[in-house]
Predict the structure.
Amino acid sequence: MRHKLLDFTNTEVKYDDARRKFSGYASVFGGVDSYGDTIIPGAYKSTLENRKRPVQLRWNHYGDIIGKWTEIREDEKGLWVEGELTPGHSKAEDVYALLKHGAVSGLSIGYRPVKSADNEHGGDDLYEIELIEISVVESPADIDAQVASVKSVIEKAETLKEIEALLRDVGGFSRGDATTLVSRVKTLTHGDRVVEEQKNEDYSNLVNLINASTTKLRGL
């Protein structure tokens, strides 16, 4: 899962104190982020139309579910959201206080790219996104909490591509550095496999030689 942070200066966030509601943009189209990625208008159309599960409202992606999104829609500017923090939820109350005080930085989507293409900025133009969750996030994140989150995500990563995304989104690696590191791991893994295969071949040859020698001795 990858993440995109949008600072509150671009979200147009509004608040309803009585019901702990807030609204704004969780994502905007056309910009170039720190990874060189650009979200193209229409990227959320499919994921919003064909949803079987609700998009979760979380704290810092891997923290508590702190409420629910009551409306998520794509318009000409980006992804507009309206959310309600859960009344009586201690973390939700804390988050709302942080929001109103301006102590946290913004909203961030958790997603997987479905259709994308390399662009001139060294990143991807994202034409279709599978939306997983949208979080209220702090920035910069506390490094200790970030390490705990990384450990949790590493355990769930099943492919080298997911590891590469993890290095970019959580580890702070550039796209080029993440790709280079994963390629190096693949090369080393291949080398280990070749060595192991050679050991197995040598062992097999030794067994065959012993068997041949034993057979010859029996014939004497």
Remarks:
- Helices lie at 45-49, 90-101, 143-156, 160-169, 175-218.
- The CA atoms of residues 24 and 36 lie 23 Å apart.
